[in-house]
Write a structure and sequence with these properties.
The complex is a heterodimer of chains A (379) and B (386). Chain A is an alpha/beta fold and 379 residues long. Chain A is 37% helix and 12% strand. In chain A, strand 4, helix 3 and strand 5 form a beta-alpha-beta unit. Classes of the chains: A alpha/beta (379), B alpha/beta (386).
């Protein structure tokens, strides 16, 4: 699987070039796949209705491809969660082409490991990712005017101002297991050319016969490495941010004290997959004895007393699989920097297990793989 | 609605909040109450939560009228009593919409009010969470100024058009601030429970409340007009399936509106249940029927389903809108629909705990006009709204 990752210096990959801008080129590819019957459906972002709301759409009619905006810099939902919904009961019965971001693909691979979906019959099309804008910018209608600047910065491989912090600090902007990778980040030909790396045999089979130029190319790994370094620096900066500097219990309690207990972070999280969260279950309800005992003991008791506990347990459950997609922070009504906390905790847990979530579907989840020799120092 | 309009004027030189707290302290120290459920600032100082308090020292720190509503008070009472009512007698300081929701939840068997004394306060509204959390220190100042002047501009959109900001009759005690000098609060008992607390404290409540009543009436009239106008404007934007679809098109299907709603009490929502799990083949078939299918699916169905379930009990508190990550005017839409449904049944949610929920009472003679065409009903409702 790792070989299919764009960015390996030592490997020539089959590349398809279409003489159109990436968004038009992708639409052409999607239309081709549908019209030729190579896929039954395509799943991509689409502009809905008059107010310009952006939403994913499962398209079977090729004419509907025209209204897709597959690279629109917004993540209304993490698609991994939706792919899980589509394939939870049975794998996809027909081929479907899916255009998604690298973190969405990684999250779906984690969900497949967790038996919440199936990769079968999907043709994954992803891109080197410049990041997305916060949901609140979409709500305010502020994204449209940023688009020209967004694409210009992509072309230059620069950090894009105003994108979400999670994206600014993301060093995994090259997809791992995509069948097709669209090269846009730092691609100087972006205005006129769609450059698609065909990473798998499946990809080559699916695009056979499409009008375009085929070649063998190496990715521009020097440019990608530069971008990675810039993102790494940003990651360090955000990680050192005062809000998450101290992860001691007092600081965490303060950080989470704004929590209104809505659990929306869990609801939108692609790797929080439990059908009923423990903290929404009867087991976590307190009876009057609990409150009255606490009242006698302390003189007062917060009716939001379990929020820190909730966040700690959520971190404990998801940190090995957290892909840093940032949706938790995006939907938090209390503006808690949830993503930055997950980043810090996720990074350290993933480092400890030498595990990168979503990199390889064959790699077992850390806590399902026991090695007698590991963590000797903990003992 | 309001049963008795005699009350008592208490001095509150340090402001409404301190005045309420001093009354509560008195009630605690004379054993009229065992504990108080009241909002207070959280540890970090930048938000508020309900606290159950019995020590007077803690009570000193409470904020009976906080600038934001982080959790709807009815939900808090439900957390406290749905596994049983406990032994302690507890007074709850609430916004009127919180008390009305609590009364609806009592009817729905989700809270036990036997040991609860509901104390409501004339409500200047609350600020949207997003505005407040941008800068809590500034938010505190904005709220202080606006609430003293009864300026509803910085408040939630549904607070600005709220016509039930004062006593509704269902509470035990009401704290009036309108139409009285600053430096005073009015305590008005509205139930036997409320009367008994005042009696035990030896507080006579024979004073005339007509200045307060007039002030409440005047503001109610003004708000009713504003509400009517706001609904008329909104109706033009959302009426009909196309416009309604458009209004909810930014929905990301997170169901947070339901999660924070005081009335939506189901342990598991139908829309989060196995009933809403479909096979891949089902999804493809639905996509093929129209050429494409929005993912996530069934977002509008969810909102209409929720509306059907809770709109007769909707108290227009605005939590749903505050918790929506894509700023859909959920509370305003539900207010419009809720008002219509409530008028149709001549029902005011939270007015009286003994009044039955409309859908639990069948009257043979009602809704004869429904047998007419939809057009007839719609035209009648439009006339009503105008």
């Amino acid at each position: 699987m790792q070989e299919s990752r764009l960015g390996r210096r030592d490997r020539m990959t089959r590349v398809l070039g279409i003489d159109k801008s990436p968004e038009d080129g992708l639409r052409e590819l999607l239309r081709f796949l549908l019209e030729k019957g190579r896929v039954k459906g395509v799943l991509a972002l689409r502009e809905m209705g008059e107010n310009g709301a952006i939403s994913y759409s499962l398209i079977t009619n090729p004419d509907h491809v025209d209204s897709t905006v597959p690279l629109y810099p917004l993540m209304p939902v993490n698609l991994a969660k939706q792919l899980s919904r589509l394939t939870l009961m049975e794998p996809a019965g027909d081929p479907v082409a899916v255009v998604l971001r690298p973190c969405e693909l990684r999250a779906f691979v984690e969900l497949v490991k967790l038996k919440q979906g199936s990769l079968e019959n999907f043709l994954f099309i992803s891109s080197t990712c410049g990041g997305v804008y916060p949901l609140e910018m979409a709500v305010a209608g502020d994204i449209e005017e940023q688009l020209a600047q967004y694409w210009k910065a992509l072309e230059q491989g620069e950090l894009i101002p105003d994108i979400r912090s999670a994206c600014k600090a993301c060093t995994y902007f090259v997809p791992y297991t995509a069948d097709i990778t669209l090269s846009i980040l730092g691609n100087r030909e972006i205005g006129k050319q769609t450059v698609l790396f065909l990473n798998t045999d499946k990809a080559q089979r699916f695009v056979e016969g499409i009008p375009g130029q085929f070649s063998e190319e190496e990715p521009d790994s020097a440019t990608l490495e530069e971008i990675r370094k810039a993102r790494e620096a940003e990651r360090q900066k955000l990680s050192d941010n005062v809000e998450t500097k101290a992860l001691g219990i007092d600081d965490l309690t303060k950080t989470f004290s704004r929590c209104i207990d809505c659990h929306n972070c869990s609801k939108v999280c692609p790797v929080c997959y439990c059908h009923v969260c423990f903290f929404d279950s009867k087991e976590s309800e307190h009876g009057p004895v609990y409150y009255e005992t606490a009242l006698e003991k302390n003189g007062s008791v917060s009716m939001l007393s379990d929020t820190t506990f909730y966040h700690l347990v959520r971190l404990y459950h998801i940190s090995a699989s957290c892909v840093g997609c940032g949706l938790c922070a995006d939907v938090c009504p209390a503006n808690i920097p949830l993503w930055a906390i997950s980043l810090k905790v996720g990074d350290s847990v993933q480092k400890a297990f030498d595990y990168l979530p979503g990199k390889d579907v064959e790699e077992g989840l850390p806590i399902t793989a026991y090695k007698p020799e590991e963590f000797a120092e903990v003992g | 609605m309001v049963v008795t309009q005699k009350g008592v004027i208490l001095a509150a030189e340090e402001g409404t909040g301190k005045g309420i707290l001093s009354f509560l302290k008195q009630a605690l120290s004379q054993n009229c109450l065992d504990a108080v459920l009241v909002p207070a600032r959280v540890a970090a100082g930048d938000s508020f939560a309900y606290f159950l308090v019995q020590d007077e020292a803690f009570l000193e720190e409470a904020s009976p009228l906080p600038p934001i509503m982080t959790v709807q008070g009815a939900r808090v009472i439900s957390s406290l009593t749905k596994r049983g009512k406990g032994k302690k007698k507890i007074a709850v300081i609430m916004r009127p919409c919180e008390a009305r929701a609590a009364i609806e939840l009592a009817k729905l068997g989700q809270v036990d009010l036997e040991h609860m004394t509901l104390i409501t306060v004339d409500c200047p509204g609350v600020m949207p969470l997003s505005d407040y959390f941008k800068d809590p220190t500034k938010g505190d100042e904005v709220f202080k100024d606006a609430s003293q002047a009864w300026n509803s501009k910085p408040m939630r959109p549904v607070c600005r058009i709220c016509d039930k900001f004062s006593a509704s009759g269902g509470e035990d005690l009401h704290v009036g601030t309108l139409g009285t000098n600053t430096g005073n609060i009015l305590i008005i008992p509205h139930s036997a429970k409320g009367v008994s607390i005042l009696n035990r404290l030896g507080i006579a409540f024979e004073e005339d409340m007509s200045a307060w009543e007039t002030a409440v009436e005047n503001l109610t009239e003004k708000r009713k007009k504003e509400r009517k106008q706001a609904k008329k404007t909104l109706r033009a934007d959302i009426e009909g399936i196309d416009k309604l679809t458009e209004a909810f098109s930014a929905c990301i299907n997170c169901h947070n509106c339901m999660r924070v709603c005081p009335i939506c009490y189901c342990q598991q929502c139908n829309f989060d249940s196995d009933k809403m799990k479909f096979t891949f083949g089902d999804y493809i078939a639905r996509a093929e029927a129209r050429g494409s299918l929005i993912i996530p699916t069934d977002t509008l169905l969810f909102h209409i389903g929720r509306m059907l379930h809770m709109s007769v009990s909707c108290v227009s508190c605005g939590m749903c809108e505050d918790a929506c990550p894509t700023a859909i005017p959920v509370a305003q839409i539900f207010t419009l629909v809720g008002d219509r449904n409530q008028e149709a049944f001549d029902y005011v949610p939270g007015r009286n705990v003994d009044e039955l929920l409309p859908l639990t009472t069948f009257e043979q003679e009602e809704f004869l006009e429904v047998e007419q065409s939809y057009a007839g009903v719609s035209a009648r409702q439009e006339r009503q709204d105008d």
